[in-house]
Structures are given as C-alpha cells and as structure tokens.
Amino acid sequence: MTSATALYDIPGPAARRRHLLYGLASTAVILAPAGWILYLLFDTGQFAATKWTPFVYKGIQELLLRGLGNTLKAFAFASVLSLALGAVLAAGRLSAHRVPRWTSTLLVEFFRAMPVLVMIFFVFVALKAQPLPALVAGLTLYNGSVLAEVFRTGVHAVARGQGEAAYALGMRKTQVMTYVLAPQAVRAMLPAIISQLVVALKDTSLGFLITYEEFLHAGKLIASNLDYDLPFIPVVLLISPVYIGMCMLLSWFAGWVARRERRSPRTKAAEVAPAAPETLLPGQR
Question: According to DSSP H, which parts of the chain are helical?
C-alpha cells in the first residue's frame, strides 16, 4: 500500500514501469543523433592517426597553450573592466541628477545596440590600436553596458522598504547603496553576471579576426596547414571541450560564491530572545 507525500502520491508499480519506459525512450532519442554523428566522423576518417598526429608535436602544443593563455589574458582584462564600467554606468543611471543619468543612459543604449565585432574593428582600424587592446575595448564596452543594466535591475529588485529604512536612520545615499542595497542585489544578480562573463569569454574568439593570437586563432593555424592534412574536425573536437570546460568552471565558481554568501555570518538572521511576560515596550515604565 502506497503512502502519500505533501507534494504528490508515490508512484505505484504501473507508474514506475511507465516512467522507466519514458526514460528509455528519451535516452534513445538523445543517443541516436549522437551515434549517427559519431558514425559520420568515423566514416569520413576524422579519427585517423594522420589527423591527430600534429597534436603530439611540441611546437603545436606550445602554440595551443600560448593561444589559451592569450584567451585567458583577454578575458581577465575584459571581465574586470566590464564589471568596473558596468558599476560606473549603473551608478550614473541610478543618479538623481539629470546630466549623469541621461549620459549614462545614452552610453548604455548605444553600446548595447552596437555589434561587438563592429566595435572591435573600429578600435583596431580607426584608432589603430594593437589587437589585444582592441579586443578588450570592444568586449568591455559591450559587456559593461549590459552589466550596467543587470546592476540597475538588481538594485531595483531589492525591497523598497530596505532603502527607506536606511534613509530613516540618517544614512546618505552613498551609504545606503554601499551597505544596504548593493550587498543584497549582488546575490540576486550573480547568475546574470556570470552568464554575461561567459558571453565575454566566448567572444574572445573574435580576436582571431584581427590577428590576435588567441586559442581559436591557434586552432585555425593548425587546421589550415596543408602539412597536417587539414585536421579541421580534430581541432574543433579539441578546442570545444576546453571552451565548455572554462564556462562550466565559471558556473561552478558562481555557485561556490553563492554558497559561501549563504554561510556568511553577515547574512544569517540574528537570534532574538523570546519576549517574557514582564517585558516592557519601549517608553513604558
């Protein structure tokens, strides 16, 4: 005899068999295309030793590692500058003064509407910047403007009474934003911030269009070399997991920060002793 929970009835034998069939059918639907793609890769000789031999050479390994290092360097600069620019633009949009508010709004809307590649090429060609500064500038302007909207929305998402209570205590607007609104907003904004940083990480691959020697540029050099029998698919199979792994690492880091924030003593509720019968209200004697 089955018992019930607060949310649903525990499935019986027939329901468990039905769920098992659903699971097997779903697994088959997922594995069938994957098996077909794997068959095509084997059938076209993408796993032949001649196509994978280049990755054994020390020079190729150093080229890939150097490209990966350049990718991480561009991402590090772009992420830090994007967060800083986003914070400045968000502060401007939240300002009570018209000039900084309208100026920040204009900049945010303009850079959000501009394609990243156009900004990168503009800095690289018109301003004659080096590949790394051009790539970082384009990524910073776009992602910083997007993060500015994330920050502004996160601050507005905090309960209005939080700010009103802080103002009632005599705190200035800067203190209210720094000590009351921003710490609460960051926890809500963290998933969106990490998602945008993942976008910035992937967009570093646009650097190969301006000859910046990042990870994708290194793979392109290997795949286009006739001496290696054009190992395009092996390069994709090698580079893609690295990008996926870096994005998953960012997501894991975001989860770790969120768990650490929840365990932080500053975010725990203070224990209040229960009121005794003889406890007097404020102002009573």
Answer: 13-43, 49-52, 58-93, 98-113, 116-121, 131-157, 160-168, 173-176, 182-203, 215-223, 232-263
Query: Quick one: which of 157, 160, 156, 146 has its CA closest to 192?
Result: 146
159-177 CB burial, b ≥16 within 10 A, e <16: eeeebeebeeeebeeeebb
pTM of the model: 0.76
Spatial contact of 166 and 180, defined as CB atoms under 8 Å apart: yes
Mean pLDDT of 80-85: 95
Residue with tokens 């003889």: 278
Whole-number pLDDT of residue 7? 59
Is 280:227 a contact under the CB 8 Å cutoff? no
Q: Angle, to 10 degrees, between the axis of helix 215-223 and the axis of helix 58-93?
A: 140
The string of pLDDT tens digits covering residues 25-65 is 999 998 998 889 888 888 877 788 777 888 888 888 899 99
Compute the distance between CA of residue 268 and CA of residue 271 in angstroms, rounded to an integer.
9
